[in-house]
Amino acid sequence: MEESYIILDGVLTNNKNVISLNNRSFKYGDGFFETIHVCKSKIQFLNFHFERIIDSAQKLKMKLPSHFNEDFLKNDILKLLNKNKFYLGARVRLSIFRKDGGLYTPESNLASYTIEAEKLPIHIYELNKIGLKIGIYDEIKKQISVLSSIKSNNSLIYILASIYKTEKNFDDCLLLNEHNDIIEATSSNLFVVKNNVIYTNSTSSGCVNGVMRNAIIDLAISQKYIVYDDCIFKEADLIEADEIFLTNAISGIKWVMSFKDRRYFNKVSKKLIEELNNQFID
Q1: pLDDT tens across 256-271, in order?
Q2: Pair (112, 154) in one structural domain
Q3: Is 127 domain-assigned?
């Protein structure tokens, strides 16, 4: 088996034991992450990812290294992929966390980071052949706050929703906020189509501000769809929809076949994922 490498604070290493027991992300969930799709040497939507990195660091009062800009991150990712010989499709995870030290009160607000990568089985965005069967996870509600939109290293609600999904034999689950609005899936943003008009949640509803969410909004508008990105969804909105699909940075788009007794089409999903590949995959 070939050695695989990661990056820690800009340095390539094949030592996977780089995280100490004092790591604040391990102890307190004190950090955030980005999951990034790379096709060949093209890092998809890096500008959106980097905007969210800056926003997340500011909200968590973390100080990124002064040299940590978009070009530096791009070079780090490509250096890692080349070292691991990942030349087609790769899933990259960037984890950013406050440096070791302190209890709840940190000794420093300086940030460290790691970058990991793994090969993807297919380098393009591929629509699922069989639509998803989804349900609603209502045991814990996601609270709306300034932290709702970031990809926090504290992911307990998504873990519990995913366990519930498995227990109930769903392919995915939708989460609720404290107002019982439907806001997102376990690792994806939610889109609803009715009469060829596309709707998605407002980020003020508590959903993650997804990179692919923003990319699909821009893409759909460029394809002459009417898009509303400030919506609040209840169950009735899903029942009345013609189509439902989920988006994230790695999969692109996954279409939903069923929710409760309702069945859906995937016409818009097919068109958008085809255009996504045409515009962004070499």
Answers
A1: 999 999 999 999 999 9
A2: no
A3: no
Count CB neighbours of 251 within 10 A: 18
Instruction: Tell me the sheet residues that pair with 218.
Output: none
pLDDT of 201 above 80: yes
- Which is it for strands 172-177 and 132-142: parallel, antiparallel or unpaired? parallel
- Per DSSP bridges, beta strands 132-142 and 252-259 are parallel
Angle in degrees, 0-180, between the axes of helices 211-222 and 267-280, rounded to the nearest 10: 100
Tally the domains of the chain.
Answer: 2
Domain co-membership, 49 together with 99: yes
Asked if 39 and 95 sit in the same domain, the reply is yes
Tell me, yes or no, whether 73 and 107 share the same domain: yes
CATH number, domain of 254, equals: 3.20.10.10
Q: How far is CA 136 from the centre of its chain?
A: 19
On whether both 89 and 170 belong to a single domain, the answer is no
Lookup result for tokens 């607000």: 109
225-229 own/partner pairs: CB under 8 Å, 24+ apart: 225/196, 225/197, 225/198, 225/268, 226/196, 226/197, 226/198, 227/197, 227/198, 227/199, 227/200, 228/197, 228/198, 228/199, 228/200, 229/200, 229/201, 229/202
What residues pair up with 184 in beta bridges, in sequence order?
A: 175
Q: Name the DSSP letter for residue 131.
A: P
CA distances from 271 to 144, 216, 249, 253 (A): 33, 11, 18, 11
The predicted-structure confidence for 203-215, as pLDDT tens digits, reads as follows: 999 999 999 999 9
